[in-house]
């Protein structure tokens, strides 16, 4: 994929999407459609990974899916792709949606713009994880190696994934 131009989400904008348990989009707000360069008909009932950028390591999505399938929320930084090959960075908050019996019936994501210094750090980390994934003999081994590298980095920092993400979010608030 050719390297496209970066699109920057305005600080006050919130991207919202809702999916079923398989990740198929059931709702996308106007901000989502506008920045991703899609029409509503292009995304409804399509997998959410329609906006996945190839620079994103699979490990990050494994961590995300493991967390939300277990009934927990996750905050993470994601580089998304647009229909025309551009890209944009977000701080995503993904949560499961429950029915009245406590069963997961879908997922809800709100995404906002991260501040600029965070992006450079995420690009470096994600590049390292992607390189680790691609250095393995197959996709499964790559995913295992990528997750091991992420966990190693978190352990070295003495942080959980949540603490890691929130450390950047705290820096964003201080910079505002």
TrEMBL record:
Residues 26-108 form the PAS fold-3 domain. SUPFAM superfamilies: PYP-like sensor domain (PAS domain). This is Transcriptional regulator. It comes from Iodidimonas gelatinilytica.
């Amino acid at each position: 994929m050719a390297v496209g131009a970066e699109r920057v989400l305005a600080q006050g904008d919130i991207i919202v999407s809702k999916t079923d348990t398989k990740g198929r989009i059931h709702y996308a707000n106007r901000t989502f459609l506008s920045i991703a360069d899609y029409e509503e008909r292009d995304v409804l009932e399509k997998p959410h990974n329609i906006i996945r950028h190839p620079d994103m390591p699979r490990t990050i999505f494994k961590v995300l899916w493991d967390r939300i399938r277990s009934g927990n929320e996750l905050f993470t930084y994601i580089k998304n792709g647009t229909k025309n090959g551009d890209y944009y960075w977000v701080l995503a908050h993904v949560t499961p949606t429950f029915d009245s019996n406590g069963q997961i019936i879908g997922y809800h994501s709100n995404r906002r713009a991260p501040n600029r210094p965070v992006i450079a750090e995420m690009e470096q980390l994600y590049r390292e994880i992607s390189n680790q994934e691609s250095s393995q003999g197959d996709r499964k081994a790559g995913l295992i190696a990528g997750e091991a590298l992420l966990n190693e980095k978190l352990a070295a920092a003495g942080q959980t994934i949540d603490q890691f993400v929130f450390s950047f979010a705290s820096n964003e608030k201080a910079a505002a």
